[in-house]
Amino acid sequence: MDLQSHYKVGASFQAIRVLFVLLALFCLSLANVPSTFAADSPAPPLSALTFRMAGDDLRTRVVVMFDREPKLSTRLFGNPHRLVIDLPETRFGFDEKSLEARGLVSHVRYGLAGKGCSRLILTLRGPFDVENLRVLKNEDASGYRLVADIVATSDRKFAEKLKEQKGKTGSTERARQQVAGSALPGNGKPRPFTVMIDPGHGGIDSGAESLSGIKEKNLTLAFGKELRDRLSHERNIKVLMTREDDTFLRLAERVRLARQHEADLFISIHADTINQHDIRGATVYTISDKASDAVARAMAERENKSDSLAGALPEEQPEVTDILLDLTRRETHTLSLSFAEKVIGELQGQVNLINNPHRFAGFQVLRAPDVPSVLIEIGYLSNPEDEKLISNPEWRKKLADRIALAVKAFAARKRPSNLSGG
């Protein structure tokens, strides 16, 4: 082979080597194409697997289970009161039965809210606050859970939350307008001392009934209105009622109303029956885990069954451990005891009282942690003498006058701490 032929063969081998290199690079690029497409393809939608609620009209816990960690945001709205939870596109697999109204939540909706976005909307029975909202990894299974603790609050505090939210996000102008004027004093005037009168029972829940057919629900409403009218003449005292007609209210709803309106005092009115027909006279009850006596224990057990007797299902209460809440309860309990003693002081010598008229038991309707509360048995429909007195408008007016004096004295003592409206 001559030199020229040698160079031609070498050039050919060089060209073939370059061709193989280019072919290998091309194959490598083709091999990478599927992984590139896979990286750019959208992730499958989030899955919301289950929905659970527990609680009552004062405090409700919502738990939503997800297949993976959700990225979410929340907003509050008014009129109606709503908690809106925005999620990435989500497939919802909720059991419809789990969405039935419970506690503070009256309605649940969910679905797509736009391209790549889904929304979960909780409609609440009244003003509320999200006390705690967490996304937690499941310990015993795959996936994550959203836990939201929702508590009843006052109109004023809810409006403040919306105002604060608007300042942060600028997204609640319409909702803020909807509740404008509903709560914030803003006029520099002292907030009036607010009394919530709670006529026991109502609607399908008639309460006790005397041998002659007089129903407790009617007497408590009549006396509640009498007390309201008497207190309405006092300066700097605002009077509200949980019901002004023949309406059924759950026990927790009565407490929620007191907290919604930031009541300074809650007075629940009753006129029960007991087996010992010779027992008569007015009684003032405050709350306690341990009953003062057998009569008090029986009374509390009966009153606490009002919801179930009226066909309302009992609701599980989420466990709460809070040092500040415990301190508030203690202060509130001290104020409740103080008012109870003032009532008894005004009634002594004026109306008949039961022996040891200040008693205590675990009445659910008295459990607001921040509202001093008492339950007043104005008499017992099981006693003929008491029935006659309770049915007498003049006697009810006299009793209302005496209780109003106790309220006035209690308000005068408590008012200095309320001037800030906080």
From TrEMBL:
Q: Where is this region: Disordered?
A: 163-191
Task: List, for all copies, the residue spans of the domain called MurNAc-LAA.
Answer: 255-408
One biological process term from GO is: peptidoglycan catabolic process
Q: In the record, what terms sit under GO molecular function? A: N-acetylmuramoyl-L-alanine amidase activity
In terms of SMART domains, this protein maps to: Ami_3
Q: Keywords for this entry? A: Hydrolase, Signal
The UniProt catalytic activity note for this protein reads:
Hydrolyzes the link between N-acetylmuramoyl residues and L-amino acid residues in certain cell-wall glycopeptides
Composition-biased stretches (Basic and acidic residues): 163-176
Does the record bear Repeat in its keywords?
A: no
Q: Does the keyword tRNA-binding apply?
A: no
Give the signal peptide as a residue range, or say none if absent. 1-38
* EC number(s) reported in the record: 3.5.1.28
GO CC term (a single one) = outer membrane-bounded periplasmic space
Name the InterPro entries on file.
Answer: AMIN_dom (IPR021731), MurNAc-LAA_cat (IPR002508), N-acetylmuramoyl_amidase_3 (IPR050695)
Protein name, as recorded? N-acetylmuramoyl-L-alanine amidase
Q: Which organism is it from?
A: Brucella neotomae 5K33
